[in-house]
Amino acid sequence: MSSFEAKLVRAVKHKREAEGLSIRALSAAVGVSFSTLARIERGDGQPDNNSRIRLLEWLGADAEKSGLRFENVAFVHFRAGKEHPVTDCAHLLKAADCLRASLGPSGTPKPPADPDEGAPVGSVQRSKEELEEIAAKFRSDLGLKASQALDSLKIKVDGVQVTPVGTTTCLDQRTINHLRGEASGEWSAMSVPLDSDNEAWAVLLNDSHTMGASTVTVLEEYWHILLGHKLTKDRACCRGLRPDVRP
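The structure assignment produced for this chain is given below.
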């Protein structure tokens, strides 16, 4: 068991016992089977990525205190209601790791926060009217008229870098051809957090789709990132990748 998994197991066991929960009660709370949790706590096995994500989410702030982060998570818009080939997940995970390495923080200190900028939006629940006001301001900031279409492929959002899969240098040509060909109908985009604060992102775009579909996809990624939406479904496709089914 790696140091990360060992630290995760210790943190989970500590919190479970502190809250007076049995392994069976924890199983019901996090959606991981009793037998799996019991085996993990005994040290007879290590949690797979699905279990890791669920346990990290259950730990909440305690995960951060224990030095546990979602450093290997990427959010993918997969085709709904389907099981996705592990090979596709592996290719996307390879791209996610490369994007982090090539576009992630290089050690340069972050600029001080703008005191007039205010608190980040985060994942606050907002009414339809509030969302419409945000959208209207967004369009106004872009200088768009009421009848003018928003072309998301021509705008830039601070902290977000969009890379079409056909132009990425993070994958070999054979893998690019697979993701744009045989697997093109399985996914539309992948958002990768580049830092632990989720302030910098890379979006890998499936550019084999139509221009109209790509425009909508990129806009959805911007919207999710800027509003800090969280996933509502936590089944892992493979290590480090999760279907993106945010509200």
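Interim note for the steering committee: Residues 74-105+122-243 form one domain. Confidence is low (pLDDT under 50) at residues 107-123, 231-240.
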